[in-house]
């Protein structure tokens, strides 16, 4: 597995995280990750209602902002929330965003920072 480039925890900037979360499609990706824990990027794009290239742009924006971490295994890419990293940098931010999106904390999936293939 190969880890795609992403900012170190201490380099995650609030403005970049908020910018990444401001788009409805990217917010939907974050909600889905919060519920499932890990997503296969190829399969997830089919359900978002956007072209594959647009979905890739959204995944990259979330990764470069430090919201998600992406690992590649062969041709497959797996993405998960950087829940622990975001919580250490901006306590309560992710929970507040998910709560505002209508996701109860009891519905949240596993918060692993490093995705495993499914």
Explain this structure to me?
- The chain is of the alpha+beta class and 118 residues long.
- 48% of the residues lie in helices and 14% in strands.
- The protein contains 6 helices and 4 strands; from the N terminus they run E-H-H-E-H-H-E-E-H-H.
- Strands 1-3-4-2 form a 4-stranded antiparallel beta sheet.
- Strand 3 and strand 4 (76-81) form a beta hairpin.
- Helix 3 crosses helix 4.
Summary of the model, kept short:
GO terms for molecular function: DNA binding; DNA-binding transcription factor activity. The chain is α+β, with helices and mostly antiparallel strands and 118 residues long. It is built from 6 helices and 4 strands, in the order βααβααββαα.
> CATH first level: which class?
Mainly Alpha
- SSE order in H/E notation? EHHEHHEEHH
The shape, in one word, is globular
Q: How large is the share of residues in beta strands?
A: 5-15%
Would you identify the CATH architecture? Orthogonal Bundle
Termini, distance in Å?
13 Å
Biggest beta sheet summary: 4 strands, antiparallel
Computed structural class: alpha+beta
Mean pLDDT: 86
The order of strands across the largest sheet is 1-3-4-2
- CA gyration radius, whole angstroms: 13 Å
Query: Helical segment tally?
Result: 6
CATH homology superfamily name:
Winged helix-like DNA-binding domain superfamily/Winged helix DNA-binding domain
Keywords: DNA-binding, Transcription, Transcription regulation
Pfam families: HTH_20 (PF12840)
Protein name: DNA-binding transcriptional ArsR family regulator
Domain HTH arsR-type: 6-101
